[in-house]
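Could someone model S-adenosylmethionine with this protein?
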Amino acid sequence: MKPTPNLPQPHAWTLEDFHGRRELRKSSDKPGAGVRADWKSLRLPDGANSLRNQPLGRAVGKEIRTAVDATAGLGYDTYALALLGVEVLALERDANVFALLADELARAKNDAQLCAAAARIQIEHANAHQRLPTLREKVGFTLGLFTAREFILPDMILLDPMFGGERGAAKPSKEIQALAATVGADLDADALLDMAIASATQRVIVKRSRLAPPLASRVPDWTIKGKLLRFDVYRAGAR
Ligand SMILES: C[S@@+](CC[C@H](N)C(=O)[O-])C[C@H]1O[C@@H](n2cnc3c(N)ncnc32)[C@H](O)[C@@H]1O
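Reply:
Sure, complex below.
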């Protein structure tokens, strides 16, 4: 039997407000029990030091100062990059996911533990397919001691598209379900790789679940492996 239009579907996730904060809720969820971004759940007691030896920290290395997270989702990787001291522009194309990202950034800016890294994050509701080719004109990173914004290409671009709606189990499963149901598989992600390599000055990092084929079937220059995930690293040299 086909689902009846205009009636809430049993597994549909909708964006709802709960005391001024938005959450993705299933019809069976009580208010407040929906999915929000929660960067504190990353539990990094020793801040950047906790990250340096983890696969993402090793893939980023020590020389990256600016990055575009082109598939930001709930912003966990965006926050991790910012905690590593990187200035990040995060792009998210889905309006509901972007709402959760924006709420968490606003919350983080007012949180004593998160605010220093949050100050290094800018977010845009944008599709990377359209936005990456315009980075040269429109990205402003506030570098080091400079107070004015400089318009430059990012040192690094991170890609983490949904792979067949499935991932390892790096995050609580309710988040994965909500993301998978909301954005589905990012079937157009292959085309982002060439664009990213043409737009970053040092490297492009692609986060994949451990057994997934490389993005666009392109063999990476090197790979950093974690238990459930791996980071494929591609050299880039945009000028
Ligand atoms: C696997 S999630 C990213 C998770 C994220 N790395 C984190 O740490 O929370 C992929 C996200 O990328 C977004 N996305 C996919 N393709 C995109 C594109 N071309 N432009 C902007 N966002 C995109 C999807 O909407 C989805 O929210």
